[in-house]
From TrEMBL:
<keyword id="KW-0964">Secreted</keyword>
<keyword id="KW-0378">Hydrolase</keyword>
<dbReference type="Pfam" id="PF00089">
    <property type="entry name" value="Trypsin"/>
</dbReference>
<dbReference type="InterPro" id="IPR043504">
    <property type="entry name" value="Peptidase_S1_PA_chymotrypsin"/>
</dbReference>
<dbReference type="GO" id="GO:0005615">
    <property type="term" value="C:extracellular space"/>
</dbReference>
<dbReference type="InterPro" id="IPR018114">
    <property type="entry name" value="TRYPSIN_HIS"/>
</dbReference>
<comment type="similarity">
    <text>Belongs to the peptidase S1 family. CLIP subfamily.</text>
</comment>
<keyword id="KW-0720">Serine protease</keyword>
<keyword id="KW-1015">Disulfide bond</keyword>
<dbReference type="InterPro" id="IPR033116">
    <property type="entry name" value="TRYPSIN_SER"/>
</dbReference>
<feature type="domain" description="Peptidase S1">
    <location>
        <begin position="27"/>
        <end position="256"/>
    </location>
</feature>
<dbReference type="InterPro" id="IPR001254">
    <property type="entry name" value="Trypsin_dom"/>
</dbReference>
<keyword id="KW-0645">Protease</keyword>
<dbReference type="InterPro" id="IPR009003">
    <property type="entry name" value="Peptidase_S1_PA"/>
</dbReference>
<dbReference type="GO" id="GO:0006508">
    <property type="term" value="P:proteolysis"/>
</dbReference>
<dbReference type="GO" id="GO:0004252">
    <property type="term" value="F:serine-type endopeptidase activity"/>
</dbReference>
<dbReference type="InterPro" id="IPR050127">
    <property type="entry name" value="Serine_Proteases_S1"/>
</dbReference>
């Protein structure tokens, strides 16, 4: 569920899951991928449907966007959420595992999506294979150079309000100039240290609804999670990602 922000009122307004960047969506400008290419990719399932992406870090732990748990029945998360690993497809194959615990960042702000990260503890019900593998975290407070290409994958919509793919999608997204990103979103929502922009200021390349919580990977490390933006692939409004390097110390505290 990639969250959309409302331009008309210049405020951070969460749009319903049917059009937010975490439910039922795909990479805009992407291509088909197999799970063997990105075995750390997982699908967070809510009420039996793909809801968000997630990223495997340890045998029983994954991370995703905190806003993926902004639902009215979160207190019953063990009943309404599952996680699918080891599948190229959005709603079939692989292993569907139960969630043991969910920890949202204590400073997560549901209005601004600051500190948009959650750590998931998963049941001990699968082993590592060529289709199920963890990925490394970046060093804390590591600087990523503008123009670096991060690989973003997920099952988000092909374009804004477009069709939902059956097959995992992926595309390389360049890290964008931070000052321009700050200026672009200044009157809409603050770009904080826990965020960065990637994609394009010219449209045509972006994550979209259903990609939220999914990974951006660079040099074998998950540097970002799909978080929010204005619709999908809109001119002047690139995607905004959770900055995992900035949040690394907190994530480490949640892992055994």
């Amino acid at each position: 569920m990639k969250v959309l922000f409302c331009l008309a009122v210049l405020c951070a307004t969460w749009i319903s899951p049917s059009i937010a960047r975490s439910t039922n969506n795909r990479i805009v400008g992407g291509e088909d991928f197999t799970i063997e290419q990105v075995p750390y990719q997982a699908s967070l399932i809510y009420n039996d449907n793909h809801w968000c992406g997630a990223v495997l870090l340890r045998q029983n732990f994954a991370i995703t966007a905190a806003h993926c748990f902004d639902v009215p029945d979160f207190n019953n998360f063990r009943e309404v959420y599952r996680i699918r690993v080891g599948s190229t497809y959005i709603n079939r194959e692989g292993i569907v595992a139960t969630l043991i615990d969910v920890t949202l960042h204590p400073q997560f702000d549901v209005d601004t999506y600051n500190f948009d990260v959650a750590v998931i503890q998963i049941c001990d019900c699968f082993t590592w294979t060529e289709r199920i593998q963890p990925i490394a975290l970046p060093a804390a407070n590591q600087h990523t150079l503008e123009g670096s290409l991060g690989l973003v994958t997920g099952w988000g919509r092909l374009w804004y309000q477009g069709p939902i793919p059956d097959i995992l999608q992926g595309a390389e997204m360049p890290i964008l100039n931070r000052d321009r990103c700050l200026e672009t979103y200044a009157q809409i929502n603050p770009i904080t240290d826990s965020m960065f922009c990637a994609g394009s200021f010219y449209g045509g390349l972006d994550s979209c609804h259903g990609d939220s919580g999914g990974p951006m990977v660079l040099n074998g490390e998950v540097i970002g999670l799909v978080s929010w933006g204005i619709a999908c692939a809109q001119v002047d409004f690139p995607g905004v990602y959770t900055n995992i390097s900035f949040l690394r110390p907190w994530i480490d505290q949640q892992l055994p």
